[in-house]
Amino acid sequence: MNKRLGSILLLASVLALSACGSDSQAATPQSTESTQATSSEPIVVGSVGSDAEIWQFIADSEAAKKAGVTIEVKEITGGPITNTATVDGDVDANAFQSIGYLESFNAESPEKLVPIAATYVEPLGIYSEKFQSIDDITEGATVALADNPSNTTRGLRLLETAGLIKLKDDFDDGIGTPDDVIENPKNLQFTLIDDLTGPRILPDVDLVLISNTIALEGGLNVLTDSIFHEEADTALRATVNIIVVKEERAEEEELQVLGELYHDPEVQAFIEEKFDGTKVQVQIPIEEIWGN
């Protein structure tokens, strides 16, 4: 009887331990599944030059932590490559370009990108190591313009504003070229360059038109080093910089938060100090400047 009772108790203990082991194994995948459900993938933001520096600051900011988002910044050397990476899904969003630049890209791309938030405007400047002012520019001076439709037309508009040329009345601000110049009293000689090379070729030409992001990377401040520059306001819609995503992702909440993070006071204080006021905040609804 004692032997039979002992066997029964031993069997009951084994069954109980086995059941506990099964419960423990079942709990493990449930816990893992819950973690995966609550964890979010990082938002990958593609950017260029000084803008990438801004987004790295945003990624490390308290504002991003409070919003519960993780941002991974991918620095890419070149605007077209950055847009292509967004189209291909290698990055979730990008931040480096103006509305005019995006419109030029979309005109040539079968898959469209759209802005989800405005960020800033920064002046395009005319730089020279040979002339101290617009009035000093001599006959036949060489002028280097960025070789992409948006910045070529923007540069020509700035030259016109400076009183150096006159453009035809139906000048297209999306695809204009130096051929659209109808008055050129100083007989300026135009050459098109990769806009990233602007600061490097400054000693080799008389005038170079350089976007502020590229100028900053070359140690130039548009407000103090250029001989003439645009006004930093939103009057020129095409010059407003934006955060850009694929068209079908424009309403995703996790991407919409990028605009809010950019305009966080902590972030704006960093931008103001780091870039000496050359990136002027634009905090207006994107619908006011993008309607196509």
From TrEMBL:
Keyword Cell membrane set for record: no
Segment forming the signal sequence: 1-26
Keywords from the UniProt entry = Lipoprotein, Membrane, Palmitate, Signal
- A GO-annotated cellular component: membrane
Is Signal among this UniProt entry's keywords? yes
Q: What is its main location?
A: membrane
The entry's localization annotation reads:
Membrane
Under PROSITE patterns, the record lists: PROKAR_LIPOPROTEIN (PS51257)
- Please give the SUPFAM superfamilies that the UniProt record associates with this protein: Periplasmic binding protein-like II
Q: How does it sit in the membrane?
A: Lipid-anchor
- Family note: Belongs to the NlpA lipoprotein family.
Q: What is this protein called?
A: Lipoprotein
According to its UniProt entry, this protein's organism is Enterococcus aquimarinus
